[in-house]
Design a protein that fits this description.
Largest sheet: 9 strands, antiparallel
Distance between the termini: 51 Å
Bound molecules: adenosine-5'-diphosphate
Strand content: 25-35%
Length: 387
């Protein structure tokens, strides 16, 4: 039910990470009451959202208590047990994305089965229970083979590039309880992401398609719009994402990670996320409507905002915790990073740990080469790797 003081709707987000923190930021301007279910009071979003509730998203009673009084419940991650989501919906809670859509981001095998049956392009894949199944797969598709865990992976964890039978033995030789599948190693030119938002009424809107750059499975940089992507391919990537959102009945944001591959099948779907996504952080400064504001509009069934660019190009660089001796002393380096007046800094209020996503930098302008260099320089300063 709406907040009695303001008459504005209450949006509850399960999970108190940086995505919730930035969604909260967008909710402020819209006047929306934002509530967050966090693990601990120090969580990134809990530090800033006045209505933060500490609880366990794996516990149905905690979820139900959190949802009470929310007009809509949505997520900052996809780990809430599906059965709990179903029970919330049965109890009359509006949950977006709903239990019909969520399985496809909770289980990579279900996602591939479903997308494949709908005719969307996914790499060749097969469940592999043992080493000989990997060898059989390699006999058809060649080495290397990409092995993935069906669930629980993120930022490249749960993804292994296996180059030989010996590699496969190391991974699958001993029982682990993990369901693995093999996937064809796609010789992609680069990685793209298409982000769209969809409302419960079925309205949808796409953001400009971006190029994502990963290092060791972690997104380190996003360039928007994707440089030198033909208008035709950009349109096809947007239509792909809009089509998936519609067919899977996604409400809120959907990010589709795409491999740009050969001319025969130029766009291959790698991964889906049904929430704000790292590939959309650039929109805070580079788009008329940010992905976070768009997600709020979408789950409330409000009109979606304009997604056009505010500058010819925007580069987003992730700030991952550094490893050097100066890494922990982030605060003292912020002024130097801001000495470039175009740098837009977004810090998440997280302690510095090596490789941990603790913030990002956006910079908008004309020349992508220059923007990339300046974003990288700001991040190097913040990591303690540059003076
Ligand atoms: P996560 O869900 O952990 O982010 P992804 O499935 O997105 O894992 O894989 C992480 C990265 O591994 C991708 O961004 C890509 O660079 C690489 N990768 C994943 N699948 C393949 C594949 N089939 N072929 C080639 N590279 C892949």
């Amino acid at each position: 039910m709406p907040n009695p003081l303001t008459s504005m709707p209450v949006v509850g987000m399960v999970g108190g990470g940086q995505l919730a923190r930035m969604t909260h930021q967008a909710s402020i301007a819209l006047g929306v009451h934002f509530r967050v279910l966090c693990d601990i009071p120090d969580d990134s979003a809990a530090q800033v959202a006045a209505d933060s509730v500490v609880g366990d998203f794996r516990n149905f009673d905690d979820l139900e208590a959190f949802a009470r009084g929310c007009d809509v419940v949505t997520f900052d991650h996809e780990h809430v047990p599906l059965r709990h989501v179903e029970k919330l919906v049965e109890a009359g809670v509006r949950v977006y994305p709903g239990p019909q859509a969520l399985p496809y981001v909770q289980d990579k095998i279900r996602m591939r089965e479903r997308l494949g049956s709908l005719g969307f392009p996914v790499p060749a894949w097969a469940i592999v229970e043992n080493v000989s199944a990997v060898e059989e797969f390699a006999a058809s598709y060649g080495w290397p083979v990409v092995i993935k865990a069906a669930s629980g992976g993120y930022d490249g964890k749960g993804v292994w590039v296996v180059r030989s039978k010996a590699d496969a033995e190391r991974l699958l030789g001993a029982p682990s309880g993990i369901t693995f599948f093999a996937e064809q190693h796609v010789p992609f030119r680069r990685e793209l992401a298409a982000l769209v938002a969809r409302t419960p009424s079925g309205a949808s809107r796409a953001f400009p398609v971006v190029e994502t750059v990963q290092d060791d499975g972690i997104c380190v940089e996003v360039v928007a719009p994707a440089p030198a992507l033909s208008a035709e391919l950009a349109r096809r990537a947007q239509e792909l994402a809009l089509g998936i959102a519609e067919k899977l009945d996604v409400v809120g944001l959907l990010a589709v990670e795409i491999f740009e591959a050969d001319a025969e099948t130029p766009l291959v779907v790698n991964e889906l996320a049904m929430r704000p996504h790292n590939s959309g952080h650039w929109t805070i400064d580079g788009c008329r409507t940010s992905q976070f504001g768009q997600h709020i509009r979408a789950v409330l069934d409000w009109p979606l905002g304009d997604t056009s660019l505010v500058a010819p190009a925007t580069v987003m660089a992730n700030l991952l915790g550094g490893t050097g001796p100066r890494a922990a002393d982030l605060g003292s380096r912020v002024p130097l990073a801001l000495s470039d007046p175009d740098v837009r800094l977004h810090l998440y209020g997280k302690g510095v740990r090596p490789g941990r996503k603790i913030g990002h930098v956006n910079i908008s302008g004309d020349g992508v080469t220059d923007l990339r260099a300046r974003a990288r320089r700001a991040v190097d300063i913040l990591r303690g790797d540059a003076q």
